[in-house]
Amino acid sequence: LHQTVVHIAGAEDGWFRYVVTHELSGWGEADYQAGDYPKLIDVKKLLSDVHAHVEAMFIQDPDAKMAEPVKLPWGPTITIGEVVWHILEHEIHHRGEVYLMLGLMGIEAPDV
Ligand code: NI
User: Fold this and answer.
1) pTM for the full model?
2) For residue 100, how many other CB atoms are within 10 A of its CB?
3) For a tag on the chain, would you pick the N or C end, based on fewer CB atoms within 10 A?
4) Distance CA 25, CA 14 (A)
5) What's the rounded Cα separation, in Å, for the pair 42 and 12?
6) Phi (first) and psi of residue 37, to 5 degrees
7) What is residue 78's three-state secondary structure?
């Protein structure tokens, strides 16, 4: 569960800071590991820091930003908006896993 939540942050960071802005040299730099974020407050800060970075990209003219093209490292060109939708879908997918894991441990998942 811990690693799944850290992976949510890593995927968001990798998509934006590697694929979109090239601030990172590859996926590996965003392959965050739960052991490096041992406490809940550390995981929350990672998620918050990654998301704040993405939000900052959209402060000025978000519609234009969403329409900007992004050439993917494996060839095709898509828009930043499509990256945003992919990251949303990815997070929903893994949040579903987290909720399932909580349920299997007998812990009531919080409301969305
Ligand atoms: Ni994933």
Assistant:
1) 0.92
2) 12
3) C
4) 9
5) 17
6) -130, 70
7) strand
Three-state secondary structure call for residue 93 = helix
Q: Which residues of the chain fall below pLDDT 70?
A: none
The pLDDT tens digits for 76-88 are 999 999 999 999 9
Q: What gap in Å lies between CA 28 and CA 26, rounded to an integer?
A: 5
98 Cα to the center of ligand 1, angstroms: 12
- Residues across the chain: 112
Q: Helices (H), strands (E): how many in the chain?
A: 4, 2
Kindly state the tokens that stand for 11.
């995927």
Reading the block at residue 106, the tokens are 């007998």
CA–centroid distance, 85 to ligand 1, in Å, is 14
C-beta neighbour count of 97 within 10 angstroms:
14
Q: Which of 12, 17, 20, 2 is nearest to 92 (CA)?
A: 12
Taking the centre of ligand 1 as the mean of its atom positions, its distance from the CA of residue 69, in whole angstroms, is 23
